[in-house]
Amino acid sequence: MTKFRATVSYDGTEFIGFQRQAAGRTVQGELEQAIEKVCGEQVTVIGAGRTDTGVHATGQVIGFAAANWKHGIERLQKAINVNLPFDVAVRDVADADDHFHPRFSAASRTYEYSILVSDVRQPLARRYAWHLEHLPDVDAMNGAADRLIGTHDFAAFGSAPEGGTDTVRTLKQAHWTRDGNRLTFLVESNAFLFRMVRRIVATLVRAGQGKDSAEEIEHVLHSRNPDLAKGAAPACGLCLISVSY
Amino acid sequence: MTKFRATVSYDGTEFIGFQRQAAGRTVQGELEQAIEKVCGEQVTVIGAGRTDTGVHATGQVIGFAAANWKHGIERLQKAINVNLPFDVAVRDVADADDHFHPRFSAASRTYEYSILVSDVRQPLARRYAWHLEHLPDVDAMNGAADRLIGTHDFAAFGSAPEGGTDTVRTLKQAHWTRDGNRLTFLVESNAFLFRMVRRIVATLVRAGQGKDSAEEIEHVLHSRNPDLAKGAAPACGLCLISVSY
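Output (structure tokens, whole complex):
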């Protein structure tokens, strides 16, 4: 069996998420269809991060096995891209060893969340950023973000995927930067709970708007009570940018 | 009668163009619906540029008359924006004098055309740029663009809108700049023919790819023969950025 790993970009706008489902357009479904067409055999694509409806990626990592392909990885990449729709592309393909698993082998995932601040909505930015009318206090957001870094039970900010029960995660980075009217949140964790980044972003923006203090947010974290964390930021601002192994 | 002018942004992806048509989603249609809801009267919105299917705008100028509105321009802008879909926004509203006509009063329109050069498609850039795999020769593109500046019969590059016959236009600016892997074409004319920018872009890219020389392109211009200008660049790269009065 020949195993491959690949880095994938996609515009999540028109997908109901990464993971194949009984009905609806998914990134996994599009990738499997393209690879099956190219390799002439049934394949299962596994992704490092099961991004939610509307979430984008520039650095999703996938793995798949294809016994029939004999033409090298460069031609494989080109052939898959020709068969993919406009909103998914394979950035690179590499040979993978037998033990490689995109999800279980991953040491950490890094997401970026984008906010655009402007008094009027900007239609050309709207698919890839959360629009806020007023600039939140970025220092307050970072002060609150600092409280989340480290190993914690993040049950207040998300649920374990697929019936899992372990909600302890290790947040390695969580930092906002401002470039003019654009705010970018870079967040890295060994793994993320379902909706975790978007719920953390909503909470940090509340801190930046003076609605909650860093102490209150630390209290929410320690409560492990999902009813205490208020809201989730829109999916359009979120992008999976890299996976480390 | 109270007349207003406004600057409008839109993401053209899901529109069949600016101008209202018998069937299909148009920017004019969405604007008229929103303004009618806000002002409680039937209105006709006139745009400075009748952008084509899939073409974007950050600086479209519109005009409309609304006798019933008594609450000032700031509240008018907010109320219209609340009633517009995510892909259209009114950037500003101003009072207009009786003689103002968005199209006939306009002295020039400026468009920007974006190209993204990368060996692999970039899904997150794809809605707003033409993807090319190889970098064309920007100096050659500008050398050819220089030949088009001035007053010419541009019949080879487009047709007069709505049964008009005058195909003479005055191109004031036509220049490519490169920023890393992004090429931007800034083009200003007193007015544009139907498809003119996209046909000029396709022609200039051919020059940048060494397929046509600047002399051949000048020959196409002077021929006034639309069969000689080859192709039109994709609509997604085009954006109406400003209108001068």
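Chain B has a mean pLDDT of 96.
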